[in-house]
Amino acid sequence: MALNKSLVWLRRDLRAFDHAALHHALQQSKTVYCVFIYDRAILDSLPRQDRRVGFIHACVAELDAELRQLGGGLIVRHADAAVAIPQLAAELGVDAVFANDDYEPQAIARDARVARALAAQPCLWFSFKDQLVFDKSEVLSLSDKPFSVYTPYKHAWLKKLRAQPACTAPLPVAPLAARFAAPAGPAALPTLAELGFEPDALASLAIPTGMSGAAKLFEDFLARLANYASARDFPALKGPSYLSLHLRFGTLSVRHLVRSVVELIDRGVGGEGAPVWLAELIWREFYAMILFHHPHVVGAAFKPAYDAIEWESGPRADADFAAWCEGRTGYPLVDAAMAQLNQSGYMHNRLRMVTACFLIKDLGIDWRRGEAYFALHLNDFDLASNNGGWQWAASSGCDAQPYFRIFNPVTQSEKFDASGRFIRRYLPQLKALDDSEIHAPWLVPRMLLEQKGIRLGRDYPEPIVQHDAARQRTLARYAVVKGPH
Ligand code: FAD
């Protein structure tokens, strides 16, 4: 034990178990303080009603209570983190600050600023891998280069996991908890109102929060895991895990998730679902690796040739974009998906692909506008995965959908919501339509629609674009990138 006092700065790792920074700080220090900063540099850019802030607020309260049980507690500040961390380190007189790695370019720059300020004090800075099983350059091709295609990356990732099973071993906290220091001063945490936010949106959604919420969701999902492969593509079904929000804020340990699923696979009880779900967690690591090695993807195409594409602009494009955002395109699956996003902050993966493809390839609108809308509205917004998903749909990303493969929103609807159950959930005005009619109401004879109490343009929009014509326009638009990209 080399250090006297240390400070652990928790960010997107809001848990008190299996936690790299807490584990290493406790191992190496006599006394450990913990801090969470509501970072003004981020919060000031958000709308005053933000489900993510509500979620974090609930998670911080649970984390503080859990740390207090263990003999510690959270110091909570509302400040510019890059300034507040060195200040707090000086106030407490700590020898070192511990944190877990954050791979987003802005976070890397912020952490570098903090590390420089600490070095001048002097105070040490340690940062650990925690958010991912393998990060940065841990999984490389045979020629020691970062991968840009997912499938060989996945194979190399799985091979590495088999070779180094210890990389998912838990990093315990509780056995060393006697070294936690309780924070001095009042125990009261800031309210949402004190942080400048309206305590709205999250409460009505009953989203499970904190470590306890994450554990409950994972337990619930394990009972459905075997069916994941067959259920995951159908938005009306409870197919996926709904864990993305918890992975984003670290209320669970990804090591634990991977270890649990691999154990089920090895025991032959994970069914078809377990390896497919593991492959999704590997997509998350793949996109994090891409962002780390290619930070230019923030704002630009992974494949630069795609930056030459001319997107629609002007009042018509703005009106189309607004219709997409508000779920008024006249394509029921797209509109129901956008309603799901707007009402809950979640959107099913299949629908993220469908709506992204529709914006880019049916409306000809720049993928960056859609990416920004998702970034604002998704509870689970993650820069790497969101950018990866959008560039996949735009065909500009690594291992993306080829530009000439253009989802037909009606066919997608007939295939993945055949009975219209998902559509009816979000567009009750279309309830009366038959299963065969609900995917493309404009094809239903007007008289029949009227009999069912629906008038297009009054109860539900006419389609804002004709898919076949849009498809041709997209092929022409993408002609600038034809070639070996
Ligand atoms: P599950 O199906 O249970 O998957 C388990 C976990 O694997 C997810 O929680 C997630 O961490 C990871 N995962 C699954 N699919 C992907 C994927 N395609 N790429 C990367 N990781 C994946 N995911 C985000 O976490 N944040 C985002 O901001 C985000 N934006 C997206 C935007 C677009 C246009 C697209 C096509 C996909 C996006 N995804 C994003 C990926 C995926 O849609 C979500 O991770 C998934 O829908 C979350 O639901 P779940 O937790 O129930 O997923």
TrEMBL record:
InterPro entries: Crypto/Photolyase_FAD-like_sf, Crypto/Photolyase_N_sf, Cryptochr/Photolyase_FAD-bd, Cryptochrome/DNA_photolyase_1, DNA_photolyase_1_CS_C, DNA_photolyase_N, Rossmann-like_a/b/a_fold. Residues 4-133 form the Photolyase/cryptochrome alpha/beta domain. PANTHER family: CRYPTOCHROME, CRYPTOCHROME CIRCADIAN CLOCK 5 ISOFORM X1. This is Deoxyribodipyrimidine photo-lyase. Its cofactor is (6R)-5,10-methylene-5,6,7,8-tetrahydrofolate; FAD. Belongs to the DNA photolyase family. Keywords: Chromophore, FAD, Flavoprotein. The lineage of its organism: Bacteria, Pseudomonadati, Pseudomonadota, Betaproteobacteria, Burkholderiales. It comes from the Bacteria. Coiled coil: none annotated.
